[in-house]
Amino acid sequence: MPASPTLRRRLTLTLGTAAALTLALTGCTSNEAPPDPTTAGGGSTSSAPAPGAGGNDEPGEKVVIGFSGPAADHGWLGAINKAAIAEAGRYSDVELKVSEGTNDANLQISQVETFINEKVDAIVLLPTDGAALTDVAIKAMEAGIPVINVDREFSSTFAARVTVLGDNYGMGVSAGTYICERLGDQPDAVVAEIAGIDSLPLTQDRTKGFNDALAGCGLKVSNRVAADFTIQGGESVTAQLLQAAPKIDAIWNHDDDQGIGVLAAIDTAKRDEFFMVGGAGSKDVMELIKSGDSVMEATVIYPSTQAADGIRLARILAQGRVMGDLVSGTVPRKVQLYAPVVTKDNVDDFIGAAFTS
Length: 357
Known about the structure:
Blueprint: H1 5-16, H2 18-29, E1 63-68, H3 75-89, E2 94-98, H4 105-118, E3 122-125, H5 134-142, E4 147-150, E5 162-165, H6 168-183, E6 191-195, H7 201-215, E7 221-226, H8 231-244, E8 250-253, H9 256-269, E9 275-280, H10 283-291, E10 296-301, H11 306-318, E11 334-336, E12 341-342
Parallel strand pairs: 1-2, 1-3, 3-4, 4-5, 5-11, 6-7, 6-8, 8-9, 9-10
Antiparallel strand pairs: 10-12
Helix pairs in contact: 3-11, 4-5, 6-7, 8-9
């Protein structure tokens, strides 16, 4: 949907005044201290600021942030909600209004409309359907309320001030690269893939990244099935996969929650000739990796901190602060989080922040 002239003007003004805001606000809200007026030159800005003083964690003007996400019917989504609420609770100057999680796009639209009517200062939104929530997000932006889009992108850039994403393509690349490192000298290795919901762009991106990485070492996916991000779906399609493939060298499962079912099917079939790489980074999977007593050898992180990052960015925007760790000082339009591989060698670095399936 094209943006209205009002919104275009607002975005233009925002960009045009960014430098002025940076100069005006850096002294009190960046990660550096303001110049010392007692230095020679009568407080000239040419003196180097002292690092480490002040910062965006310092209390500021009270702001109200609305948060809406899908129903927490999945371990990762539950962790998303929990982390967002916990992050808001860190700040005495933030009031968080949380809508009940829903998988009904129409209900979520009404929740956002309520936030607009209440004139909240910012909205953090993980849409149940990015395209369906685009129009109401634009409506919020046109009302002067910055929208922070989390995980599932809107269909218009005018619908959000900031978009915080995991890296689905990067997850596939990380998983494929790890398997290449383990099997790259075996051109006849049998690689299997257990995807999520094939109709979702995120699943398609994960598969593309996986195929691209495998191609780099001469491997390809020999057997592929798609589940539905549920335990039951994971178990069902894995049973089919194992029957169809009498020999497998490696499996990448896109999602650790559905991986509970995947592992159940593997145990039932009494198969252990392969190693497995998971996806998302659940605590249950990390414990299996740490134990060394499972086919589960690694998992690829898909951060459950995305909404928490959204809360932090919403507060910075609503209070007119700047990001002192960036030279420009302005909040980026898009933030994409990294997808590292967790193995037995580094699991202790990640397990403390992992979510429970």
